[in-house]
């Protein structure tokens, strides 16, 4: 199972998000890959109709037919996570490498039924404690910015919460959580795997798979507004920065790397051959993924990332921070702006405030 971790600090409280999506995606003039197969019940062997099958954190997917069969195609490349989801069954995944010479991929998946005990069913409509936990969950999961105010959880009743004596909140969902983001024009199907949020700030994380669906605009003006808002969310984001770093276009894309808390410029270095070889020896997973699609970089200390136009009147640029988390300071980036090992970097500052209301599908493209 591929996992991506984003480490962040907000108001001195650390958290990290485990978004379960492909480690690397690209769609630039690559071969078309066909993905097909059958989804069945693990206990009975019968086909499951209308199960969701999708590439995590993208708009790409389909549902199974009456025979449990599915088929779709993609021109994405790299390692992808195929997600299989259906109400009443445990979500399952399959790791697929689309870089292989093989262009047709067949996957048979058996989904395991979830046993639901009747004594666990609870009416939540008048449950004050549930409502308080729900509001807290929304703040941490959806966010509180202007995009979050236009983002709605359509089926909150599928959520269940527990809070321990130390105030740590955990959440689970009996079926996929459906979120509509009216600001960005997406309906998001979220398979929530885990959610834990504590007062200490050092154990905060949530884990999920997601499928994006474009909303139907009422007119061309609304579509233009969505496109503009999506690009505005992308510009200055961590993904935009990593793509720019990979392409050596930081300055062109209005990024500047400086010493923490200052405007003193500093470069994100490239490790020398000896450093890189030592790093790869210690990290077998990274060694397997070294190719033309990945570039190594090195941070010997935290670095602040400024984004935006310079102004002589006031500081209008946003400030985020990259903090190295491994001893070597080396991290690998794909051409699509993904970290090979997200646990190698922690985000502070502006980027740490981003939540689901700011998320875009990985297969969206902007000129860089």
Largest sheet descriptor:
12 strands, mixed
- How large a portion of the residues is in β-strands, by DSSP E? 35-45%
- What structural category arises from helix and sheet content? alpha+beta
**How much helical structure, as a percent, in the residues?**
10-25%
N-to-C SSE series? EEEEEEEEEHEEEEEEHHEHHEEEEE
The number of distinct β-strands equals 21
Q: Which descriptor suits the 3D outline? A: globular
**What's the mean pLDDT score?**
85
Task: Note the main attributes of this structure.
368 residues, alpha+beta, twelve-stranded mixed sheet, 15% helix
Structure report:
This protein has a domain at 237-358. It is an alpha+beta fold and 368 residues long. Mean pLDDT is 85; it is low at 1-15 and 21-25. It has helices spanning 128-141, 220-234, 238-246, 273-282, 284-289; strands spanning 4-10, 13-19, 33-41, 52-55, 61-63, 69-74, 79-85, 92-97, 104-111, 151-153, 159-163, 169-173, 177-181, 186-197, 204-214, 255-258, 294-298, 303-307, 318-324, 330-334, 345-349. The chain contains five helices and 21 strands.
């Amino acid at each position: 199972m591929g996992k991506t971790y984003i480490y962040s600090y907000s108001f001195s409280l650390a958290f990290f998000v485990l978004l379960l999506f492909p480690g690397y995606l690209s769609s630039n003039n690559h071969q078309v890959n066909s993905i097909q197969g059958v989804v069945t019940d693990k206990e009975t062997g019968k086909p499951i109709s209308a199960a969701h099958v999708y590439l995590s954190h993208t708009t790409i997917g389909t549902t199974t037919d009456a025979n449990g069969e599915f088929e779709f195609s993609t021109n994405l490349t790299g390692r992808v996570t195929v997600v299989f989801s259906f109400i009443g069954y445990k979500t399952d995944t399959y790791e697929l490498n689309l870089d292989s010479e093989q262009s047709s991929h067949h996957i048979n998946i058996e989904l395991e039924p979830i046993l639901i005990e009747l004594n666990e069913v609870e009416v939540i409509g008048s449950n004050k404690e549930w409502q308080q936990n729900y509001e807290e969950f929304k703040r941490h999961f959806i966010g509180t910015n202007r995009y979050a105010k236009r983002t709605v959880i359509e089926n909150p009743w599928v959520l269940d919460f527990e809070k321990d004596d130390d105030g740590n909140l955990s959440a689970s969902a009996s079926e996929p959580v459906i979120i509509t983001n009216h600001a960005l024009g997406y309906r998001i199907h979220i398979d929530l795997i885990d959610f834990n949020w504590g007062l200490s700030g050092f154990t905060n994380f949530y884990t999920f798979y997601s499928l994006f669906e474009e909303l139907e605009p009422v007119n061309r003006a609304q579509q233009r507004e969505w496109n503009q808002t999506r690009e505005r969310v992308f510009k200055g984001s961590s993904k935009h920065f990593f793509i720019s770093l990979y392409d050596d276009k930081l300055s062109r894309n209005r990024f500047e790397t400086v010493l923490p808390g200052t405007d003193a410029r500093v470069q994100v270095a490239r490790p020398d051959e000896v450093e890189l070889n030592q790093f790869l020896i210690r990290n077998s997973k990274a060694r397997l993924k070294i190719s033309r699609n990945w570039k190594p970089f090195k941070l010997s200390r935290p670095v602040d990332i400024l984004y935006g136009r310079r102004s002589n009147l006031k500081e209008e640029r946003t400030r985020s921070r990259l903090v190295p988390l491994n001893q070597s300071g080396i991290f690998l980036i794909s051409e699509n702006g993904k970290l090979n090992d997200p646990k190698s970097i922690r985000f502070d500052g502006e980027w740490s405030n981003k939540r689901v209301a700011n998320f875009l599908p990985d297969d969206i493209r902007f000129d860089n």
